[in-house]
Amino acid sequence: MSSSGQIKIARQQFADSFNIIPWEYFVTITYAKKPTLDWADNKGWPIFCNIIRDQLPHRHRFDFIRATEQHKSGYPHHHALITGVGPTLNCDKIQRKCFTALGRMNIQPFILNGGALRYCFKRLGEGSYLTVSRSIKKRIVGSPQAGS
Predict the structure, then answer these.
(1) Tens digit of pLDDT for each residue in 96-130?
(2) Domains in the chain, please, with CATH?
(3) 23-54 burial by CB neighbour count: b if 16+ within 10 A, else e?
C-alpha cells in the first residue's frame, strides 16, 4: 500500500475514534474578511461560540472538535462538530447572526454515518489541524476504543 493510502486509513481510524461522542451539530464557517489563522482561531471561533451560548439557557460551555483548514484562496475556514448544546438550537437564527458577524456559515444537525466526522479530518496533516475541547480529549483518551 502506498504511503498516501496508509495516511488515509490512519486518518479514517483516528476520525472513527470520535464516534463515541454524541455529536449534535456539524458546522462550517467561511470567514468574509479573509482572516489570518490567528484571527480565525482566537477571534472568529470565540465569536461563533458566543453566538451559540446566547441560545443556551445558562450560556454554558459546550464541547467540540474543530478542524482549521486553508481554503483554496489561502484563507482559513473551520469545520466543527459540537455537542452539549441540546437538540433545540435555532439554526436559522445562528446562521443569520454568524453571517453578520463572521461570514458564510452552515450549521445542521449531526447525522451519524453521514460523513461529517470524516469530513472534519479529511485534510488533517496537509496544512490542516484539529482543536479538541478539553472534556472531549478526556473522553477519547479514556475510552476503550482509544487503545484499539
Answers:
(1) 999 999 999 999 999 887 778 777 777 776 777 88
(2) 3-141 (3.30.70)
(3) bbbbbbbebeeebeeeebbeebbeebeebbee
